[in-house]
Each structure stands twice: as structure tokens, then as C-alpha cells.
Amino acid sequence: MSWRDIAKIELHLHLEGAAPPAFIRGLAQEKNIDLSGIFDEAGGYKFRDFVHFLSVYEAATEVLQSPEDFYRLVLAILEESAKNGVIYTEAFISPDFCGGRDLGAWKEYLHAMQEAAAIAEKRDGIILKGIVTPIRHFDPEWSKETAMCAVETKGDFVVGLGLGGDEGQNRPKDFAYAFDMAREAGLRLTAHAGEFGGPQSVRDAINDLGVERIGHGVRAFEDRALVTELAERGIVLEVCPGSNINLGLFPTWKDHPIANFRDEGVKVTISTDDPPFFHTTMIDEYNGLSKAFDWGQDVFKEINTTAANAAFCDETTRKALLQQLE
After folding, report:
1. DSSP H or E stretch at residue 214
2. 80, 145, 167, 195: which one is catalytic?
3. What is the pTM of this model?
4. Residue 75: strand pairing partners
């Protein structure tokens, strides 16, 4: 069996970060926007390090200027994900890039994304849900407007609130008001932590924001007590090995701690983060992990079952996903 044939569930995907370079180049040409500086000679995205990656990412989003652009973006991304056997994905979407956190504009962008998601579901059998995401290196006050966008549009499509961006900027507790708003509205919570920030970053996200999942979280392995706490509390890690290796957090697949987390009883899932930026796909992730740790179909089924149970979807969708995994 090829890894393509295994049904996969992805919980950590940035919508704009999953935009194929050719798609962004095409939009830039349509709009006469010069983005030549963000591409390499092969036509892929180019960046030096994580902070430069963030600036290239934000430059690429400059061509995404309308609900129609996001409609086309969602169709392009879900087509690519479906080719990799993904049946369900949760994507981080930010009102900062969709109408500047204006609620009326956000609703128009959201409607376009939902329309595209419905077409992709019918066409490819892939389900998309959205996690609304304040950006950590932006003004924390803006996160209140972002949370309001999430609260006012929560439902079948908008299922959670996240926190992305540069861990070196601001603190999780600076976003506590936004997370409290989302929690009171019944939204599920996750936050990026323990990628470039150390174990304390993970602790702060759990204690100050009350999240049930952590985006990345891999630096938690530097703190044995924290690993035990993650396992005991059932906090799920949205692990993106290819991204971590590409950004230099770990030199090789064998050095990645995902297998160690599993051995310690921590719940882990597998995602691609920003796949074209990090030259990865879900099939590449499975290939890399299979070769490094001799993981077979049974391990990946267990990890996908963990992901289905950790997904922020409704129970009817979860039941259907678990049946597909069987």
C-alpha cells in the first residue's frame, strides 16, 4: 500500500501558508504586483530563517485581496491535500488577512471560503474547518477584534481559536482576553508554542490560555516534568516534523522527538504547517517518519485516530471520520 492511500487527518495547516507558489505568482501577475523577491530560481518560496519566513509569508498574502481570491485559494489547497489522502483538515485563518478584522468584510471572506470548501468536499471528499487565529507579533489588542470575528461567525465551519506567529513577540497572557471570549462562546482552543520558544512557552500557553491542543510543542521534550504533564492531561500536540527539520530545529528525521513523545504517552498528530514553504506534503511526512522510526500502517492509523478524536468538529463529523479510518 502506498502512503497516498491511507486516510489522513491534518490539524495544523496555515491557509495562506499552504498557497502553491504558482498560485501566488499567477495572482501577482493578474494584479501587477511584483513579488519576484520572494521566489527562488525554481519558482519556490525562499527565506533565510523563521523571522524572514514570516516576512515572505506576509508578502505572499499581499496578493490575496478579495473573497474571490480566498475562494480560489481554498479550492487550490484542498485539491492538493486530497491528492495526499487527506480527508479532513483544520486550517488557521486570520481576519487580519481577510478584511483587516472588520466583521462585515470577514463574513464575506468566510462565505467565499465556505463555498469553496463545499465544492471541494463534494469533488474530493475532503472536509475543511477553520480555526480563527490572532497573530502573536501583531498588536495583542487586535486579538480582541479577531476573537469577536470568531465568536460572531462560530458554527459548522468556524470551530476554534488559535494563536500563530513569532513566539519571540508578546506573551500568551497578552491574548488571554481573546481566548476567554472564545471559550465562553463555546469555541475550542489551540496555540502555537514550544517551536522556537522553549518548554516555558508551552506551559504559558496551557496555563494562561487554557488550550487543549498545542501547535508544535516539540521543545517540551526538554522538560521531563512537562512531558509527563502533557501525557497526564491528554493535551494533544499538532506536530509538523518536516517544518521543524526545514527550519533547523532538528537536523534529521531521526533526531525529531515525535517518537519519544509517543513512547511517553503524549498524544501526537501529524501535519504539514506551511507545506510549499517547507517543501513537504502529507505523503512526504509519512515517508520521512516511516523511514526514521520504522512506523507502519498501524502506527499511522493510531495517530489519525488520535487526530480525529482531537479535531474541533461536531460529533457527527467525528463519527464519520472514525468510520473512514476503519
Report:
1. strand 213-216
2. 195
3. 0.95
4. none
For residue 170 the three cell numbers come to: 508578546
Share of the chain above pLDDT 70, in %: 100
pLDDT in tens, 157-169: 999 999 998 898 9
DSSP secondary structure of 25-73: HHHHHHTT---GGGB-TTSSB--SSHHHHHHHHHHHGGG--SHHHHHHH
| Residue indicated by cell numbers 487554557 | 210
Encode pLDDT of 195-219 as tens digits. 999 999 999 999 999 999 999 999 9
Active-site residue 195, yes or no?
yes
User: Dihedral, CA atoms, 285, 49, 209, 206, nearest 10 degrees?
Assistant: 60
**d(Cα 239, Cα 243) in Å, to the nearest integer?**
9
Instruction: Calculate what percentage of the chain has a pLDDT beyond 90.
Output: 89
Res 94: pLDDT: 95
Cβ neighbours of 264 (radius 10 Å): 14
Beta sheet of 213-216, edge-to-edge order: 8-14, 86-93, 127-132, 158-161, 188-193, 213-216, 236-239, 267-270
Measured in degrees and rounded to the nearest 5, phi and psi for residue 237 equal: -100, 130
pLDDT at 282 over 70: yes
DSSP codes, 115-167 = HHHHHHHHHH--EEEEEE--BTTS-TTHHHHHHHHHHHHBTTTEEEE--BS-T
Instruction: Kindly tell me the burial class for residue 300, based on how many C-beta atoms sit within 10 Å of its own C-beta (0-12, 13-18, 19 or more).
Output: buried
Domains of the chain listed by start with CATH number: 3-19+67-325 (3.20.20.140), 21-63 (no CATH)
Per-residue pLDDT at 1? 63
Q: Which residues contact 222 (CB under 8 A, 6 or more apart)?
A: 198, 199
C-alpha cell of 182?
472564545
